[in-house]
Design brief:
alpha/beta, 3-methyladenine DNA Glycosylase II, Chain A, domain 3, TIM Barrel, 3 domains, eight-stranded parallel beta sheet, five-stranded mixed beta sheet, about 40% helix
Length: about 425
């Protein structure tokens, strides 16, 4: 039975030492009750209290981290639906290669090089899976020559071991232990300190295997439902998440593996898996136009619903602007940014777009809250060194905050301050008529 924050607080040293990163022991206890921190963060908790708090402090879904040059984490989630609080660890998106492929190094290099900027964030592929249909040790070395991102190794125990030997010092996920090979796979996972995917087509079968494998000393497990049927996979994934979160059923409290490479429609299966509740998603091939929408979907789902979706503040170039082109001002609320950027880009008109830090609020909301004023706008214009990019110092304010024009003239005395339209849809006409 999970303990409440007050019950946990009574078992803590109550020194308010702040060494855990929280101002009081009570604040730490509340975070511990919400499964948002680890008990080990408290340096003074007694062994007796540790024993009593062990069950309460453990997250309902175990954190499994794959580590190489970068790290991919799955698990540690505490809610069934993101609007209840938030989701914390985005599912890792991996691309599968086959060990027998002679072009594996070039393919890995191309996938590793892929990066797309989305509202100030760089999206990349998280890692790679290698299927042992050939010399896995050689394949891992070839891939390691192109990328240092985490790996998933797929095959039986004998085929996987050479690959693990080539991954010394890394934490790898090996796939998969089933009723026929679990002992050999568990021994391999224990020997190389690897995470282990456990595969069965029923929840009872998974629980049975997990208990046997844990008895061998393997703790970092990942669940595979041995199906790519959309309905069955969704039902099992939802059941597992509900049992772990709502019933605190530890035997199924692990991240979920989604083998999109085996699905009839990889894109649909991967999208379903990201939404409900995969920890690791493995695609069959690297196809940028297929990977990008999955990365965007993942970002949307794993954005904290208590925080507005924000664009990175900065100066953005639209339609390759020249020094004489106008400077538009807006806030870093993503919908506001896209409304302005899409209208201007679609018109074909060049412009510099300065995105100010308004804590993710829209123009009017930020102005009303004191987060979008003349001082902040001037600070952004100066901080992003806009003057060095333009020959005509002219900025366009959103029409909704025309009242700021006089104050902005004082903050930016060398600039011409213009007031634009209230709605983004009217920007192209304004730019053609009023700025030429």
């Amino acid at each position: 039975m999970a303990l409440s924050g007050i019950q946990i607080y009574k078992l803590l040293p109550q020194t308010n030492c702040k060494e855990c990163g929280f101002p009081t022991c009570l604040a730490f206890a509340m975070k511990l009750a919400a499964k948002q921190v680890e008990l080990s963060t408290c340096p003074y908790v007694t062994e007796e209290s540790k024993t009593q708090l062990a069950e309460s402090s453990a997250p309902p879904i175990r954190l499994v981290a794959l580590k190489a040059g970068t790290e991919v984490k799955a698990g540690n989630e505490v809610v069934l639906f993101r609007h209840e609080k938030t989701f914390y660890n985005k599912p890792g998106i991996f691309v599968r290669f086959k060990a027998s492929d002679s072009g594996i190094a070039a393919k890995a290099a191309a996938a590793h090089a892929y990066s797309v900027n989305y509202v100030g964030m760089d999206f990349v592929v998280d890692g790679f899976a290698i299927e042992a249909d050939g010399d896995l040790g050689a394949a891992v070395k070839a891939v390691r020559g192109a990328t240092d991102r985490p790996l998933v190794l797929i095959g039986d125990a004998a085929a996987i071991e050479p690959g693990l030997q080539a991954c010394s010092g890394e934490t790898v996920l090996i796939h998969a232990a089933d009723a026929s090979n679990w002992e050999a796979m568990a021994a391999l996972a224990a020997k190389y300190k690897a995470a282990l995917a456990v595969k069965a087509d029923t929840l009872d079968g998974l629980v049975d295997l997990i208990e046997k494998i844990k008895a061998k000393g393997v703790e970092d497990l990942v669940l595979d439902f041995d199906t790519t049927q959309l309905g069955k996979w969704l039902a099992m994934s939802t059941q597992v998440r509900r049992l772990a979160i709502k019933q605190n059923f530890r035997a199924l409290g692990y991240p979920v593996f989604a083998p999109a490479y085996a699905a009839a429609d990889e894109g649909i299966f991967a999208a379903e898996a990201i939404a409900k509740y995969a920890g690791f998603v493995v695609l069959d091939k690297f196809v940028p136009e297929n990977v990008y929408p999955l990365l965007v979907l993942r970002e949307n789902i794993y954005t904290d619903p208590q925080k507005p979706i924000q664009v990175q503040p900065g100066i953005y170039e639209i339609n390759s602007p020249k020094p004489e082109d106008p400077v538009l001002i807006t806030t870093n609320f993503s919908i506001t940014y896209f409304a302005v950027a899409n209208e201007v880009e679609g018109s074909g008109l060049p412009a510099w777009l300065v995105v100010t830090d308004a804590e993710g609020m829209s123009v009017l909301t930020a102005w009303a809250a004191g987060k979008f004023d003349a001082e902040r706008i001037a600070k952004a214009v100066k901080g992003f060194d806009v003057a060095s990019k333009v020959s005509k110092k002219r900025v366009v304010l959103p029409g909704h905050v025309a009242v700021l024009s006089g104050e902005l003239e004082e903050e930016l005395p060398d600039w011409e301050i213009r007031v634009g339209p209230r709605e983004a849809v009217d920007l192209p006409a304004f730019m053609k008529q009023a700025l030429n």
